[in-house]
Amino acid sequence: MRYFYLGIFFSLAMLLSACNTTPYGKATIYYDREQFPAQLVKDFPELTDPILQHGRCSLIISTPGSNTGAYYFCTYALTANTLYIQEWDAKALKYVEIVHVGISKFQKVALHTFFRTKQLQLTEERRQLALSVTTDGGEFINGAATESLFEAIKSKGVPVADSEGLINSPRSASPVVIPVFIKKYR
């Protein structure tokens, strides 16, 4: 019976050690919905168009046709002609640009849905962006806001394509648990 419980313990330890969870607290990316447009214009003086949509997001940048890419916690701002995506620099207390792309540069747009997860996939000539809008607290993916961003970009005349699947961040190394059994000799 002792080995049974030990086996269950090690099985659970192995299963749980393979989980790749990423905490995403409010401190990861500074975002205050009311102050965000003013802060963004202060950090990027070239931004002169009115901001139509903005929020927190998670972004994966890859090459077209790939299903894995670099992962970022970010904020986004959509103007009439441009999509700005930036991360928060806590040392300098300002936003730092990750990507800003003119809407006309997108060759296609797709919306991938996997259960409650929605991912907006934007493809340029040499780059693919996979963006999921999150709640203001950053805890969950906001499917309705992701779909709203998809509709806004689609309405600008970007061709809609079928998604080729979810684009993921690279897997992190997970710890390996090796059970060691030592026999007792009496």
User: What is the CATH top level name?
Assistant: Mainly Beta
| Sequence stretches where pLDDT stays below 50 over 5 or more residues | 19-26
Q: What is the typical, i.e. mean, pLDDT?
A: 81
Contiguous helical run count: 3
Number of domains: 1
Query: Which sequence of SSEs, written as H and E, runs from N to C?
Result: HHEEEEEEEH
Query: What oligomeric state do these chains adopt?
Result: single chain
Question: Helical amount among residues, as a percent range?
Answer: 10-25%
Work out the number of β strands: 7
* Termini gap: 21 Å
User: Can you say what the CATH homologous superfamily is?
Assistant: Pleckstrin-homology domain (PH domain)/Phosphotyrosine-binding domain (PTB)
What class do helices, strands and sheet pairing give? alpha+beta
Query: Numbering strands along the chain, what is their spatial order in the largest sheet?
Result: 4-3-2-1-7-6-5
From the alpha-carbon coordinates, what is the Rg to the nearest angstrom? 21 Å
User: Mind telling me which CATH architecture this is?
Assistant: Roll
Task: Report the principal-axis shape.
Answer: elongated
| CATH T-level topology | PH-domain like
- Share of residues in strands: 25-35%
